[in-house]
Amino acid sequence: MARSEANPLPLVRVVGPSMVPTLRSRDVVLVHYGKPPAAGDLVLVRWAARPGQLSVKRAVRPDGDGWHVEGDNPFASTDSRTLGAAEVLGVIRARLWPRPGLLRSAPPS
Prior knowledge:
Elements: E1 11-13, E2 28-33, E3 42-47, E4 54-63, E5 66-70, H1 80-83, E6 86-97, E7 101-102
């Protein structure tokens, strides 16, 4: 993820293949910061084990004080299966570039 903490715009650039096929590296998404997640939502998270890293994942279920989140591409995702519960910073609602459109929640698997 690439985002400046000083940047007031709620935009995030996706880096890496963990959310393929839903999102691809270099997609730009719109984040609703502070919105509580629901299972199946795409979310922007932070990890206690990696506080400087932001990640886009799919919310699966509440887990203690955080959320169990997973990438849509299990073969290329480091997520709650490895790092434990994540802190959800916001819910992702739309891709702005390169294929603009709303991103809908998926049922948790």
